[in-house]
Amino acid sequence: MQTTAMVYHTLLRTLSTISLSRHLMFHSRRQFLKSMAVSTPALAALAPRLLHAAETASEANLPPVRQITRGPKFHWFGYYDKFQFSPDNRFVLSNEVDFEHRSPTADDVIRIGMIDTEDGDKWIELDETRAWNWQQGCMLQWVPGSQNEILWNDRDGDRFVCHLMNVETRQRRTLPHPVYNISSDGKTGIAPDFARLNDCRPGYGYAGVPDLRHDAVAPDDVGLWRVDLTSGKQDLLFSLADAAKIPYTGEEKMAWTDSAVHWFNHLLFNTDGSRYFFLHRWRVGRGFGTRAFTANPDGSKPYILDPYGHTSHFIWRDPQHVMAWSWHPSHKSKFYLYKDLTDHVEPVGPEVMIQNGHNTYVPGTDGQWVLNDTYPDRNRLQHPYLFHVPSNRRLPLGHFHNPPDYAGEWRCDTHPRSSRDGKLVCIDSPHNGGRQLYLIDVSDLLAPTATSDS
User: Helix, strand, coil shares of the chain as percentages rounded to 5?
Assistant: First the structure.
């Protein structure tokens, strides 16, 4: 007869073959297995059947999913850190394209619009753009603080611009500089150089405008720009030369050489607009190194929040704290909560959120709920999920097939995005004949009873 310890280790090996995102309450199950290991052999023998029953219950309790866009054209939103839902949660913004599986060219035009979720998911076309990519679309988003204004990037001849539109009156105005992210008061935008980004990180910049400083590794006139959303005035806040002058203190293998090309990517204001976060990147062999910076809105007081060279997806929890996937000596590759302007860092769900994903905090939950996802697993399934920070529990939202031809630059990540009230989640997914938008109702999962540890 197997010993209790042997049963325990067998169960752990079995667990390792099951996608963790299928676990409704992974932390509680882990404690369950431990209790079986120290209990009697008879009880330990029941563990597989009990675990199977829990798995079955988990799948039966997946929240309802509704497809809100359909072919023959394809639809997606892109990145996960922007307002996709209107303030009243009725309208959902989307890009529309008639092809997939290749890089955008300067001649490719896509449509932008919104879905009326209270009128049969009707598509409402608004405008078009010539500045877009598969990962982040055209930065289409609702302007913070506005009830009816959206913005998106476009190309006008040999320059990139940003349009703002009142979706009720259809009045449109244009700024002479593109925008990446907007402050919480809706008055200020920040942006990198999208032409350089297109050269250095295909899939995140825009085609059609050449990088005029292509031969310079860290130019002093290319960097982060502040854009006044009223006047259109633009100012260079922090250049690539400024970043490269700050000594690197991370892992030696990730350090840049004198010939390494530098760029900025992934910019995000904090929740009150008093600081912003950005990634400084440079070429290392076939990959790249990364440093996570924060700075004041005028570019002053830059601070290296994570020096180790591996920062990836991130989100501000509040004006002082950022949660990001990175590497740290304490727990290696995990999600961490960093306190701005300090060296304080702590892991978040290190035994539960064990894969890189696109993480945000669910609105209205005071930082207790995290919305996240995974990249395709060995079965090509993507798994958006909720993570409850206080109880260390993970709740799956579904398992969506990602065909193998969605890879590389034109991959289709789910990029889960919350409605303004946190009750709905919208994802991009190609599991039903091409990338489309899907709504997931998570209101029952966020109810108090959903977090009880029973």
Answer: 15, 35, 50
| CA dist., res. 353 & res. 302, Å (int) | 29
The structure tokens listed for 16 are 């390792």
Structure tokens at 35: 């209790």
Confidence grade of residue 60 (pLDDT, cut at 50, 70, 90): low
Q: What is the model's pTM?
A: 0.87
Handedness of CA 163, 168, 170, 173 (dihedral sign): negative
Buried b / exposed e along 8-24 (16+ C-beta atoms within 10 A): beebeeeeeeeebbbbb
| Count of Cβ atoms closer than 10 Å to residue 421 Cβ | 15
- In a 13 Å sphere around the CA of 239, the CA atoms on its Cβ side amount to 12
Task: Look up residue 137 and give its DSSP letter.
Answer: B
Q: Is the distance from CB of 180 to CB of 189 less than 8 angstroms?
A: yes
Question: How many C-beta neighbours within 10 Å does residue 123 have?
Answer: 17
E strand intervals along 234-297 = 234-239, 262-269, 276-284, 287-295
DSSP letter at 338 equals: E
Taking the CB of residue 198, how many other CB atoms lie within 10 A of it?
A: 23
Size (the chain), residues? 454
Distance of CA 61 to the CA centre of its chain: 25
Residue 326's nearest CA partner among 382, 368, 277 is: 277
CA-based end-to-end distance of the chain: 31
Helix axes 41-60, 26-37, angle to 10 degrees: 170
pLDDT in tens, 219-261: 999 999 999 999 999 999 999 999 999 999 998 999 999 999 9
Which stretches of 410-450 are DSSP H helices? none
Say which residues have a Cβ less than 8 Å from residue 309's Cβ, sequence separation at least 6.
248, 250, 251, 254, 255, 289, 290, 291, 327
